[in-house]
């Protein structure tokens, strides 16, 4: 199935801002992270169509997911 | 006190109290500059240093700021700027918390990190700075690492807590204590070109939700470090939020998180 992936902040480095990807049915956010070479602890927030979702969220075809890195400095 | 008030009113230019007169009043009546400011504000006189505030904040607002107590947890990149801006705004009491001393690698970004302060406790430097910037503001230094065991005592009586920490797990402890004490929390975090901003009121768990899946690890900042400008941007956004919460004005960054990307100059709102 086809989904769109938007990356934000440091996740764009050596990757992309937005891309469409073909992924297997019943994939989760974690599967997408693996495909992108992002370790789960690096993730701040995942959103689907503008709403915050957890990493075990099962993706539907046609959705747009947005991934934001975790930031903890002060 | 009525003598003092008569004296202040005689010298006021319109309703403005000039700095020289505020200082003279403190010497003449053997009270602190801070106490003079309180008497002035309570009686319709505005210390002249705040005159450019007055089209945004009425005298009652300025008095409310004077009577406010704000905790700044962390006195590094974010904390230095937050303390500076709160002091210039006229927030009467600032509780500054940090266990560290200034080191050379702080000087690329931390407002209070100057060669003369190397090896000096960050909270001591903050107290000296505030005393120079606005002596009417009281800075209460707490040179300890903030945590569950001392957090309640540190935050007791504060109206807002500003997060300037560099640890996600301590942030979550801070959020729990704020919850318990019914204190609104303004969250800021930075790494390289990037940052986040969020304001959380008692009863909300936005921050906890945000970090639930991996609170123990550090973020992007470990690889990216921090430049001079990102802390200043995010700290200023935090102070704007603190100010709005204290004065109950505007729309805070509530139940949403602002993602700040200074490299691509993108500001994205995340609904939480």
The portion of residues forming beta strands of chain B comes to 15-25%
Strand order of the largest sheet of chain B: 5-4-3-6-7-8-9-10
Strand arrangement within the widest β-sheet of chain A reads 2-1-5-3-4
Oligomeric state: heterodimer
Through-space gap between termini of chain B: 51 Å
* Spans of at least 5 consecutive residues with low confidence of chain B: none
Helix content of chain A: 10-25%
CATH class of the largest domain in chain B: Alpha Beta
Biggest beta sheet summary of chain B:
8 strands, mixed
Looking at this structure, what is the CATH superfamily of chain A?
Beta-grasp domain
CATH class of chain A: Alpha Beta
| Residue share in β-strands of chain A | 35-45%
Tally of helical segments of chain B: 11
Q: How many alpha or pi helices of chain A?
A: 1
Helix vs. strand class of chain A:
mainly beta
For the residues shown, what is the average pLDDT of chain A?
94
Measured as a percent range, the helix fraction of chain B is 40-55%
Distance between the termini of chain A: 40 Å
List its traits.
heterodimer; A: 74 residues; mainly beta; Ubiquitin-like (UB roll); five-stranded mixed beta sheet; 5 strands; B: 272 residues; alpha/beta; Rossmann fold; 2 domains; 11 helices; globular
Structure description:
The complex is a heterodimer of chains A (74) and B (272). Chain A has 74 residues and is mainly beta. The mean pLDDT of chain A is 94. Chain A has a single domain, classed as Ubiquitin-like (UB roll), CATH 3.10.20.30. Chain A has one helix spanning 29-36, and strands spanning 2-7, 18-22, 43-48, 51-53, 64-69. The N and C termini of chain A lie far apart (40 Å). Chain A is globular. Chain A has a five-stranded mixed β-sheet with strand order 2-1-5-3-4, with no helix packed on it. In chain A, a hairpin with a 2-residue loop joins strand 3 (43-48) and strand 4. Chain A is 11% helix and 35% strand. Chain B is an alpha/beta fold and 272 residues long. Chain B has two domains: 2-56; 68-271, NAD(P)-binding Rossmann-like Domain (Rossmann fold). Chain B is 41% helix and 18% strand. Chain B is built from eleven helices and ten strands. Chain B has helices at 2-11, 19-28, 33-42, 59-66, 77-89, 122-133, 151-155, 168-181, 206-211, 221-224, 229-247; strands at residues 16-17, 46-47, 69-73, 93-97, 138-142, 160-163, 185-191, 194-200, 256-261, 266-271. Chain B has an eight-stranded mixed β-sheet, sandwiched between helices. Chain B has a two-stranded parallel ribbon with strand order 1-2. In chain B, strand 4 (93-97), helix 6 (122-133) and strand 5 form a beta-alpha-beta unit. In chain B, helix 3 (33-42) runs antiparallel to helix 4 (59-66). Chain B starts with a helix and ends with a strand. The mean pLDDT of chain B is 96. The interface between A and B is medium-sized, with 25 and 45 residues.
